[in-house]
Amino acid sequence: MKAAVIVFPGSNCDRDIQVALRQSMGSEPQMVWHKDADFDDVDLICLPGGFSYGDYLRCGAMSAKSPVMKEVVARANKGVPVLGICNGFQILTECGLVPGALMRNSNLKFVCRDLHLKVERNDTVFTKQYQAGQNIRIPVAHHDGNYFVDAEGLKALEDNGQVAFRYSAEDGSVNDHSNPNGSLNNIAGVYNAKGNVLGMMPHPERLCEDVLGGTDGRPMFDSLVAALS
Amino acid sequence: MKARIHVTLKNGVLDPQGKAIEHTLGSLGFDGVNEARQGKFIELDIAETDEAKARETVTAMCEKLLANTVIENYSIDLEQ
Fold this sequence. Notes:
CATH class of chain A: Alpha Beta
Number of domains of chain B: 1
Strand order of the largest sheet of chain A: 2-1-3-4-11-10-9-6-7
CATH superfamily of chain B: Phosphoribosylformylglycinamidine synthase subunit PurS
Helix content of chain B: 25-40%
Number of strands of chain A: 11
Protein name (chain B): Phosphoribosylformylglycinamidine synthase subunit PurS
Oligomer: heterodimer
Shape of chain A: globular
GO biological process, one term (chain B): 'de novo' IMP biosynthetic process
Pathway (chain B): Purine metabolism; IMP biosynthesis via de novo pathway; 5-amino-1-(5-phospho-D-ribosyl)imidazole from N(2)-formyl-N(1)-(5-phospho-D-ribosyl)glycinamide: step 1/2
GO molecular function (chain B): ATP binding; phosphoribosylformylglycinamidine synthase activity
Largest sheet of chain B: 3 strands, antiparallel
Keywords (chain B): ATP-binding, Cytoplasm, Ligase, Nucleotide-binding, Purine biosynthesis
CATH architecture of chain A: 3-Layer(aba) Sandwich
CATH class of chain B: Alpha Beta
Shape of chain B: elongated
Number of helices of chain A: 5
Number of strands of chain B: 3
Strand content of chain A: 15-25%
Radius of gyration of chain A: 16 Å
CATH topology of chain B: Mth169, Chain: A
Strand content of chain B: 25-35%
Radius of gyration of chain B: 16 Å
Distance between the termini of chain A: 4 Å
């Protein structure tokens, strides 16, 4: 399996994804600078977290227009799996690869802690090594993770099974109390209609080794390697 | 020509920053603020002198970059 991690000016989780991929793949992912639209054919493209372009105008707005993203959109539309985490999710919404938008957290606070997620389905390349309905612990760190989509869009997401993860409590319940940022229906991550693009605010790459306090993020990368190798 | 663009959240989209402004104005004793909505103001100095063409170009700029039409509306004022 070959993977690429796109690096924007202001990305700060690119190395974390690199380490997580290296661990699961047993080989090196390619690090692609955002101006290099002409990168190798790969089986997986990752858009990392961070503060690309300083979050100017809107989070992810500038990156969505960078040269490499035209190529990422074209490949995603051909079916190449794309994983966008945190700022990567914001970039995916800004370039229209996944529906909706990420707004300022409803309590206006930057939220930075481990929390729990309910895995909605495990029949995608991203989640095969989780169980459907499993409750996992994953860190979040964001100021703009309040997922919004209009009523029609929300219904379509729910009807098509495009919700990937929901913010949950430690006991697995999903309610307002377990919602850290005001996201509609506690949505923490969504798929595109074809299911080959996943955008999510939480950071699975930050919890892939025991030494970091947990491994609930690792099955995502192991799933991708198993599906794409 | 100057193009002045206001970008605002659509009706029905919750604006937590506007809410915070509203509450703080209230706590400062400014009564009677029914609602506060926060947006962005962008001013462009553009070479185009034809108003219709300028409006077309700036509209394209808003659609492609300046506004996120999932959550935001925009309005354009042009001044020679």
